Amino acid sequence: MADRTAPNCHLRLEWVYGYRGHQCRNNLYYTAAKEIVYFVAGVGVVYNTREHKQKFYLGHNDDIISLALHPERVLVATGQVGKEPYICVWDSYTVQTVSILKDVHTHGVACLAFDLEGQCLVSVGLDSKNTICVWDWRRGKVLAAAPGHTDRIFDISWDLYQPSKLVSCGVKHIKFWSLCGNALTPKRGVFGKTGDLQTILCLACAKDEVTYSGALNGDIYVWKGINLMRTVQGAHGSGIFSMNACEEGFATGGRDGCVRLWDLNFKPITVIDLRETDQGYKGLSVRSVCWRGDHILVGTQDSEIFEVVVHDRNKPFLIMQGHCEGELWALAVHPTKPLAMTGSDDRSVRIWSLIDHALIARCNMEEPIRCAAVSTDGIHLALGMKDGSFTVLRVRDMTEVVHIKDRKEAIHELKYSPDGAHLAVGSNDNSVDIYGVVQRYKKVGECIGSNSFITHMDWSTDSKFLQTNDGSGRRLFYRMPSGKEVTNREELKLVQWASWTCVLGPEVNGIWPKYSAINDINSVDANFNNQVLVTADDYGLVKLLRYPCIKKGAKCKKYLGHSAHITNVRWSHDYQWVISIGGADHSVFQWKFVPERKSKEELHIAPQETLVDSNSEESDSDQSDVPEMDSEIEQETQLTYRRQVYKEDLPQLKEQCKEKDRAIAMKKRERAPGSGLKLHFIHGYRGYDCRSNLFYTQTGEIVYHVAAVGIVYNRQQNTQRFYMGHDDDILCLAIHPLKDFVATGQVGRDSSVHIWDTETLKPMSVLKGFHQFGVCSLDFSADGKRLASVGLDDNHTIVLWDWRKGEKLSVMCGSKDKIFVVKINPYLPDKLITAGVKHMKFWHKAGGGLIGRKGSMGKTETMMCAVYGWSEEMVFSGTCGGDICIWSDMFLMKTVKAHDGPVFSMHALEKGFVTGGKDGIVALWDDTFERCLKTYAIKRAVLAPGSKGLLLEDNPSIRAISLGHGHILVGTKNGEILEVDKSGPITLLVQGHMEGEVWGLATHPHLPLCATVSDDRTLRIWDLSPSHCMLAVRKLRKGGRCCSFSPDGKALAVGLNDGSFLIVNADTLEDLVSFHHRKDIITDIKFSPVSGKYLAVASGDTFVDIYNVMSSKRVGVCKGCLNSITHLDWDRRGKLLQVNTSAKEQFFFEAPRGKRQTIAATEVEKIDWNTWTCVLGTSVEGIWPVISEVTEVTSACLSHDKKVLATGDDLGYIKLFRHPVRGKYAKFKRYVAHSTHVTNVRWTHEDSLLVTAGGGDTCLMIWAHEAETRRELRQCDSEESDIESEDDGGYDSDVTKENEINYTIKALSTNMRPMTGVKPHLQVKEPSVDERQGVVRGSRPPVSRALPQPEKLQTNNVGKKKRPIDDLVLELVFGYRGNDCRNNVHYLNEGADIIYHTASVGIVLNLTTSCQSFYVEHSDDILCLTINQHPKFPNVVATGQVTLVTCQPHRRPFTCGTP
Question: Whole-model pTM?
Fold first, then answer.
């Protein structure tokens, strides 16, 4: 079998040629170490000019477009583009990430700036609102966010002299911002008459509220406050792109190619015109300047970096060059020297020295260049052009040899033959032309087999054959030099290829993912010596694979850096380097090749940080070196926990259904019953798909979970207390280090984590909003302040919380594969580990993100559990193969064999460890895992006499282990909780059914017992008296779905899933008799009343069989149902059966013969039924909810006194109704504890308990039935009903009116009211009643007691001079908002003033002087007002207004203190 693993050698980025000058500004700075920091493509570069060395920051996954330098000049912030762009703050010395800021911006991050202290960072997004966001960057937390402007923002800066003030500028605007609380408030700059309104490109702040800004026309605008004070005209000939402030003054750079220096008062010092210098050229445009001491850095539009020394300003040093804007496609390497040639759409061809890392020659052509090739002797360089021509140059002096144009479309590929005699030229005209080199490039042949453009070509070593790839994915062969196609593949068997750059062919099958388009890999190059292959693709990845790689989806190592598509990749002539070129980022990357033997030595050097693992995870192939997955783990990875309907969806669904049922809602409905339920005891523990979810609390009680309930179990008293805050399956549980709080995570569309107190059972904190589908793992930090959680979404998102505040600290995609465990480092709470399917990852917090590295472990193993050891580097993890891996930092030190089969749980002690595995053995180890001190096997033989039940099998798979109070607590996959004494005896405390749905449930006719049967193939008898334990269990050959006691309680009938049923002795569970007459599942089974002579057996085959128990014969079959039968009941006489089917049909049959009867609905109610477990009929019509389309009522049971009907449904609700339940949508009491569908509910013989079975949650719950007198209101006493009806007491008319007010109409997206409309004197007048009736005006005089209106008031204004109006000042406001507000008038200053509001104004009225003062910062109606009563904050007022949320949904409404 071909080796499908990734190669052992690797690539290391050594040099990047280029600088991003296009579409970016202000992105070039000196660091504190006098190095130069800038970016190109997706890489941050730190360049040491003295040593001519580069360091790289590789934390981004797309183009970087903005950069800011921290005031201390060591840290750098960079922002990128992308759908979910993030900002990285990194150290320019170590090039490691310090913080990641994410989840706010979309599209990209256009500008960044640090404040003077360096504590805050401001960023501007590329979204439609150009959102401005202020970060506490160390914590990764947003302090404030606001929409920036409707048009692009080009620059933003903190005012370094006034705290909390910022300035932003952009297309035709400049804005001055103040940060107050968490609100950013802007004021627009007023251009006035001093200067034209125009686009501002850059700015710098100075003392005394002065701001300097560079405009598009080359002027500098000087602002004082928000007003334009003066302009410096013609500072530059055209747009000023960059402005940099330093101690000496300001430097500006513009499109005119000049750099100007100004003193602190903006008086000119000097000008440097780069176009006039030796290295200058026409059209040079400056994009970035940085002035430090006597050195000035200049970045240009065409990707050059100049360094200018001020006193020798006519001789700038050119320290970096790259291609200009335009796609870069052409790449060739010299056959004998360390040189690379590139050609681009910028029409230049450049030759780079791979040893000196420098540009050594450049030549401009007439046309954009698309491909290049160097002849075998290294003398000629051939360039293919976009217009279909090609040019040959002499490498020595770049002079032209020939220029030939035979084609109309672009030349995409050309190659010299190994013997140097021919040049093959492939074009987009679907053909390859062959030219003779010696005949001065005369055309000698043509290959015309392709029907699409030519993409790649390779010559054979003997120069007799050529292979081509084309755009349609065909691989063709031609005989050279004639160009005749070779159709007989036999001839090609022995052909050896001189190079391999084709993307098609058996040797390179493995470069393609299993399901990908044929055109997303752009380039390949094989290194025959080392048998490796390098590829370049559309996703910006350089990949290293083995050569040949024959099977699809081979493993690879991948390298990020290029941001978008990589167009070409080549090995250097001696295979020391790989050169890759980016299309859109037009940069040239040089990678050092590190072969296998050196790779090992390099491991000890800290790997450079990247966010993508270079060891790819993506291969979908069954790797050759992965052990087979354990069946239990396999099963668990298949579980999805997705729901058809989430409980969060219910209100919405109800609304939709209510529309249809408006009429019914008006009718009087049956009220809810008086009695209620209280959860009393639960049999069950979730072990089949959860691990490490069982702990001792502070007080020695035991805490664990099952279904949607957190349980605190007192083992002395055998009682349970419940945390009922969840509404769906709990999947994980973690305990606080002080053992008093517990965190539990549940399934849900927006799943929540609850932290609750084990004593009071009250929630301390609920965390929502970050996990989809469910939370699968939790862990507290050692100080108890932080909590880590892992979600069940496709990326298994990891969130780190400050749980008391409910605030997320960091979030990151964890892994594509399932994560089983997360653990926070007890010594360094900023570090954590995750372990799961085929991976182990080591993370550290970086601001709002986490940076993860895969543990290097040779072959990839699935990890099931992990703990930290006695130092911050030591980690121990348990694998699915039974080994314990011992890690130091992220390196695997050694493995120890601990169990047969997976190690599921592990617990660290002060002086050692305890582990548990699938083999059912608990092992105690010393602190280095060198000696196993003791093992305990979980066996029936060692069960102590005090056990509350029976062990189902020996050596059950162990899923949870915890220690405390001198015991080891063990949870098993079979749903048992055991306590192991250190001396050996084992006590069973709690148990439930194993994995598989529990459907069958029957209560004993006169004892406190019940029986259950489940898909786990067991039949169990439970004691419902205070001893709460399992009395008997028996394994069945098949799972079962129903069971029933005989009327005397001595026999028990059990229906199985294969269509058979048995009757067993109720005490010993031994077989009495069994039958197998049906193929489909037996769905319900019941003995006839009184003597139990007959047994009715309903099946999914649509039949009910009636057996005579005494004679063991089938005596009747009830036919006529069309669908599978779901429920059946006998009448009191044992003569009549009622049957429900899955299609909601109700049938009646006579017993024992099974003849079908038709009975009127009114008569059915008069019949005395022995039991009522059916869900259809007029007497139970009201149990079906409004949303009966999406949820089924699965079971019902009427109490023996016929007063209360209990039901269970698909959403996990248990409801109590007053019987009979006539009329639709009766009121009820609702209880949530089961997580998924409740499959069965049964009252005990004296109605004191209700027993319920959960399907997927495997639980048996016992509820105490409480009469009306004892009933007190508790949280699980449900909402009364699904629909409010008229008789629930309506609203007062004022309340109704206020309830219906809608404020959204006024709150427009801009905070101003609409200003359109027609002025009153221009409005078309409505005709009056008279006019409509045709009465001539004046025939009936208008009646009015008012004085006649004066014609038009005239005053003598002659003597008054007209003063220009400066400003309006609010003097007096009449009115108070009382029509829809309450509690909005207060006394202030011990009764001297009163405060209230109206419109958008807060008003303080002094009662003695009757003067008003105003707070006018609101932009729309104020709706509420409150004052701070605390003596520390006198006169602090909060007011809230109407508005549309124009920013992130998490914004709080701002509060305003009134003067």
Answer: 0.75
CA–CA gap between residue 125 and residue 127 (Å, rounded): 6
Q: What is the DSSP string of 1179-1243?
A: GGGGGS-TTTTT--EEEEEE-TTSSEEEEEETTSEEEEEESS--SSS---EEEE--SS-EEEEEE
Model pLDDT for residues 245-303, shown as the tens digit of each residue: 988 899 999 999 999 999 988 899 999 898 888 888 888 899 999 999 889 999 998 88
Name the residue among 16, 11, 12, 62 with its Cα closest to residue 38.
16
Q: How far apart are CA 1077 and CA 734, in angstroms?
A: 50
Task: Say what the pLDDT of residue 647 is.
Answer: 67
**Helix, strand and coil in the chain, % to nearest 5:** 5, 45, 50
Query: Smallest Cα–Cα separation from 329: which of 44, 536, 22?
Result: 536
Cβ distance 214 to 200 under 8 Å? yes
Count of other CB atoms within 10 angstroms of residue 67: 22
| Predicted confidence (pLDDT) per residue in 418-431, tens digit | 998 999 999 988 89
Tokens representing 316 are 């700038």
Tell me how crowded residue 640 is: count the other CB atoms within 10 A of its CB: 10
Which residues lie closer than 8 Å to 592 by C-beta, 6 or more apart? 11, 12, 13, 14, 576, 577
| Segments of 196-267 assigned E as strands | 200-205, 210-215, 220-224, 227-232, 240-245, 250-254, 258-262
Q: What is the DSSP string of 278-331?
A: TT--TT--EEEEEEETTEEEEEETTS-EEEEEGGGTTS-EEEE----SS-EEEE
Closest alpha carbon to 718 in 944, 941, 940, 949: 949
Q: Do the beta carbons of residue 226 and residue 190 sit within 8 Å?
A: yes
In angstroms, the Cα distances linking 1312 to 1051, 1317, 1319 are 80, 15, 18
Q: Buried (b) or exposed (e) across 1010-1033, using 16+ Cβ within 10 A?
A: bbbbbbbbbbbbbbbeeebbbebb
Per-residue pLDDT tens for 293-344? 889 999 998 889 999 998 888 888 888 888 887 888 999 999 999 999 999 9
Reading across the β-sheet that carries 422-427, which strands appear in turn?
A: 411-416, 422-427, 432-436, 442-447
Nearest-5° angle of CA 1006, CA 1258, CA 759?
90
Compute and round to an integer the Cα radius of gyration of the chain.
Answer: 40
Looking at residue 943, the DSSP 8-state letter turns out to be: B
- Largest pairwise CA distance in the chain: 126
Backbone angle region of 643, left / alpha / beta, with phi > 0 → left and psi within -120 to 50 → alpha:
beta
In order of 190, 551, 1158, the CA distances from 1164 in angstroms are 84, 70, 10
330 contacts 48 by C-beta, under 8 angstroms: no
Assign 403 a pLDDT band (cuts: 50, 70, 90).
Answer: very high
Give me the sheet containing 1104-1108, strands edge to edge.
1082-1087, 1094-1099, 1104-1108, 1113-1118
SS3 1401: strand
> What's the rounded Cα separation, in Å, for the pair 637 and 796?
13
Is the bond into 956 cis (omega within 30 degrees of 0)? no
The conformation of residue 1343, written as its DSSP 8-state character, comes to P
Are 773 and 648 in contact by the 8 Å Cβ rule? The answer is: no
- Asked whether the beta carbons of 38 and 57 are under 8 A apart, the reply is no
Question: Do 387 and 410 form a contact (C-beta atoms < 8 A)?
Answer: yes
Long-range contacts of 933-938 (CB under 8 A, 24+ apart): 936/968, 936/980, 936/984, 936/986, 938/970, 938/972, 938/978, 938/980, 938/986
- What tokens appear for 561 in the block? 């850096």
What span, in angstroms and rounded, lies between the C-alpha atoms of 1027 and 44? 68
Cα 148 to its chain centre, rounded Å, is 26
Q: Residue 1239: what residue type?
A: T
Answer for the pair 457, 424: CB distance below 8 angstroms, yes or no: yes
What φ, ψ does residue 1297 adopt, rounded to 5°?
-60, -45
Q: Which residues lie closer than 8 Å to 594 by C-beta, 6 or more apart?
A: 9, 10, 11, 12, 602
436: which 2 tokens? 């003779």
